[in-house]
């Protein structure tokens, strides 16, 4: 058992060495570019969020941009809110999507129509419930574009509130970002989040947009990145002023439903990423199972050094990343959050087998 534990610890530490590629990066300087940008937001029944966030998107310190608002067949006053703002600002363009039989409830179909409406070749995506961290969000995210870099991965954070669920949601979001930022720095970009993502129109059209996975309800962000991202065309943006912030779910039921929908796309990833992500999950579960079993069945002094080394190594790497992503309050209960999250993820995986998701909201 000790040797199994040692092997698992070695695998765990290998992953944290990978994550150190992001954790120990120097902080990004605030570099501003004035590329013309199309900011694209797809909204379904988001009238209240749009009232709060459209003014923030329009109040950016960026000289040339348009705001494309997509009403995805909403049945609340989403369209009316969009139209009211558009009356007073010529930068707003509205795409009103009416459901059809072939693409019923498809966010990718709605986004496709919005992208076709875009005037500029650089596009920045966010969600209706997301607010930018600063007035320089557009400039900072798009400053990473150059002749080679056509895909920019940003951080879509969640607002801090009281309670264990909020911390767990932010911890899961943080760990996900730590992984996709680190993989990208290692030349293996595999996903991004639609709450804060940018890419060029040429990259989109060269890869036929969402065509290869248009029938899958989720994945307009991670599946597209998994399909088109390479070590040469992908950059990351982790400047704190370039974050977006969303309101997290308020109940475990709603959050688990959301995560089940998100996780449903992972089976469509390229094989190398399914292997690496699967091994990461299995090695983490194995560590905690073997750690507890070893302490119960062996002389506690033998496995304790290995267990302590693994946790300490994890803390060192993670601490730097929590500072970068403004999530330092999550660090001190890291092992507890990790164990609880693994339990939740395993439950989602088991209960989600065979279930189909038919819409994005």
Summary of the model, kept short:
The protein has 2 domains: 2-22 and 271-352, no CATH class; 28-177 and 188-256, Spore Coat Polysaccharide Biosynthesis Protein SpsA, Chain A. The protein is 49% helix and 13% strand. The chain has helices at 2-23, 47-58, 78-86, 107-117, 137-142, 164-185, 201-206, 222-228, 252-263, 271-297, 301-324, 334-352, and strands at 37-43, 65-72, 92-97, 122-127, 130-132, 151-153, 156-158, 197-200, 234-236, 244-246.
- Rg for CA atoms: 21 Å
Strand order of the largest sheet: 3-2-1-4-8-6-9
Question: Can you tell me the CATH architecture of the largest domain?
Answer: Alpha-Beta Complex
State the helix count.
Answer: 12
Q: What's the story with the biggest beta sheet?
A: 7 strands, mixed
Low-confidence runs of at least 5 consecutive residues: none
The total of beta strands comes to 10
- Name the CATH superfamily classification of the largest domain: Spore Coat Polysaccharide Biosynthesis Protein SpsA, Chain A
């Amino acid at each position: 058992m000790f040797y199994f534990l040692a092997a698992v610890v070695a695998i765990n530490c290998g992953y944290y060495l990978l994550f150190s590629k992001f954790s120990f990066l120097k902080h990004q300087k605030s570099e501003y570019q004035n590329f013309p940008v199309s900011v694209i937001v797809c909204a379904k029944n988001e009238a209240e969020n749009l009232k709060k966030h459209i003014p923030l998107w329009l109040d950016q310190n960026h000289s040339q941009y348009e705001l494309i608002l997509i009403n995805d067949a909403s049945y609340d006053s989403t369209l009316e809110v969009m139209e009211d703002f558009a009356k007073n600002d010529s930068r707003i363009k509205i795409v009103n999507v009416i459901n059809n039989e072939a693409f019923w409830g498809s966010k990718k179909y709605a986004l496709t129509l919005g992208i076709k409406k875009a005037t500029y070749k650089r596009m920045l995506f966010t969600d209706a419930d997301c607010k930018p961290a600063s007035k320089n969000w557009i400039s900072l995210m798009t400053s990473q574009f150059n002749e080679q870099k056509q895909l920019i991965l940003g951080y879509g954070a969640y607002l801090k509130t009281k309670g264990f669920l909020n911390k767990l949601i932010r911890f899961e979001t943080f760990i996900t970002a730590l992984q996709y930022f680190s993989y990208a720095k290692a030349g293996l970009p595999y996903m991004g989040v639609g709450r804060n993502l940018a890419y060029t129109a040429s990259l989109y059209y060269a890869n036929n947009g969402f065509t290869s996975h248009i029938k899958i309800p989720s994945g307009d962000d991670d599946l597209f990145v998994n399909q088109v991202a390479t070590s040469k065309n992908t950059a990351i943006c982790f400047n704190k002023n370039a974050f977006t912030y969303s309101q997290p779910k308020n109940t475990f039921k709603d959050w688990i439903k959301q995560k089940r929908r998100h996780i449903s796309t992972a089976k469509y990833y390229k094989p190398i990423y399914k292997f690496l992500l699967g091994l990461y999950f299995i090695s983490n579960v194995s560590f905690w199972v073997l750690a507890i079993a070893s302490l119960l069945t062996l002389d506690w002094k033998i496995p304790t050094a290995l267990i302590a080394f693994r946790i300490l190594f994890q803390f060192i790497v993670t601490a730097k990343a929590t500072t970068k992503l403004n999530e330092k309050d999550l660090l001190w209960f890291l092992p507890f959050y990790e164990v609880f999250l693994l339990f939740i993820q395993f439950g989602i995986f088991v209960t989600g087998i065979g279930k189909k998701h038919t819409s994005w909201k």
